[in-house]
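Last lecture ended with a question: if I hand you only a sequence, what can you say about the shape of the protein? Today we answer it with a concrete record. The protein is VCBS repeat-containing protein. Below, first the input exactly as provided, then the predicted structure, then a couple of comments.
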Amino acid sequence: MRLDIVVANYYSSNVSILLQYKRGFLRDEKTYATGGGSDLRYTVVGDMNNDGQLDIAIANYGTNDVGILFGLGNGAFLNQMIFDTGVQSHPSCIALGDTELDFAVAYDGTMTVDIFLGSGNGTFVRQISDGIHFVLAPLFIASGDINGDGISEMWLFAYFVIALGLISSALL
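The predicted structure:
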């Protein structure tokens, strides 16, 4: 198994990919632009379009959107596909969930969370989650099957708070 590395470069507004070619050795980095002023904060990797290749989702804090780089399977990626998250939303982190790889985005600007439901082909429908609000700016969001029921749950964390809540994807 190869262990590759994805790096979010906040100041240079790009993502670096470092591919392992043998144990302990990485190829020179390949960079993919995320747009001037994107101020990316967070990346997460998963197969977002069910083609068997890993893709990269990026929280672009400065441009108020989420970008997805669809992987080609050879270490290369297509240009970023943009999903708008709203004016002054400032997406700060992303979590993936379920077999169609929906993703959740926590926003510093509005202190809310939205769910983008995946169709399985690389397209997503934004579900505005008016019922999920933070008292403090969100710090981290994660997902997984915490209780072993086969359904993904989402953990929400905020500054100075250990755990804000747990939301089951069965409720969405």
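Comments.
1. The chain has no helices and 16 strands.
2. The first strand starts at residue 5 and ends at 9.
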